[in-house]
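Dear colleague,

As promised, here are the two records you asked about, laid out in our usual form so they can be pasted straight into your sheet.

NAME FIELD: protein one
SEQUENCE, THEN STRUCTURE:
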Amino acid sequence: MSWSSADLPVGRTAPLPPEGREDVSRLIRSGLIALGVVGALSLSACSGFTPVYGERGIAIERQAFQYAEPQTRLDQVIYQELVLRLGRSTDPGRPTVKITTSTRHRELTRSDVARPSEAREAVVTAQIEVTRADGTVLLKTTRSAAASYMTDSQALAVSEAEKAAYEQAAKSLADTIRLTLLGTLGQSGA
C-alpha cells in the first residue's frame, strides 16, 4: 500500500474500532458537561446583583427626586446632571433636593519668577439638603470638586478658562452628589 492510494472507495472512511468509539463518545460527553457547567455558572453570576440603572434599578424605582430652583449657573449645571442621571419626580410626596454652591480658586504654583502662565484650580463646594414633603431632613452634607486651568496675560482667555473649569468641577461634583444620594438614601429606603 502506498501513501498516495488508499484501499477504501472515495468518500468512505474506515470504521473506528469499538474502543475508539467509546473514547470519542466519552470525550463528547465530557465536553457537553463542561459546557453546561460553564453556562450555568455564567448565568448564576448575573442574577445575584441588582443594577443601579435599568428597569429594576434602584435609581429608577426609588430615587427620582424633586429639585429646588437653581440660584446660580453652577446650581443649574448640577441640577441638570442629576435630572439626567436620576430623573425628576412630579409626585409631591417625593424628597426634594436643594443645592447651594459656592466657588473659590487657588493658585497651584508659588514662585517669585515671572511666568507667562500660571496653574490655578477652580473649586466648587455644594451644600446639599434632602428633605421629605413633611419637612424632615433626610440628608444634609457638603461636597466639593475641583478642576485645574491655566492663566496667561490675556484677560478674555483667563475668564473663559476659569468659567470652563468651574463648569467642569460642577459636573464632577454632580456625579459625586449622585453617588452620595444613591449610597445614603438607597440604604435608608427613603
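NAME FIELD: protein two
SEQUENCE, THEN STRUCTURE:
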Amino acid sequence: DGLELVDCMVTNAVRCVPPQNRPLPAETATCRRFLAARLADLPRLSAVLCLGRIAHETLLRALGERLAAHPFAHGARHDIGGLAIFDSYHCSRYNTNT
C-alpha cells in the first residue's frame, strides 16, 4: 500500500499467536517481560496506540500501573509519566466481520 512507518514500530502484547487469536491471562503474563524490555529500549517513546482491551491492560501492567486507574475505552487517552496512551477497538477480522 506504500505506507512507510517513520519513527514508529508495531509490536504485540504477546510474542506468539495464541489459539483462536485470543491470549489467555497466563500467556500475557508470561510475555509481559518482553513487552517491558521492548518499551525500555525506546527512550524517546511518546505515544502508544493500544488495539483492544488485551493490549491496553498488558501495556498498563508492563508499566506497573493499576488497571482501575486507567480503564479501557474506545477513543480514550491516558497520560502516564509523559507517555500518551490511546485506546481503540482491535481491528481483528473477528471484530470487523460481525
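A couple of things worth noting about protein two: Residues 25-40 form the longest helix (16 residues). DSSP finds three helices and three strands in the chain.

Best,
R.
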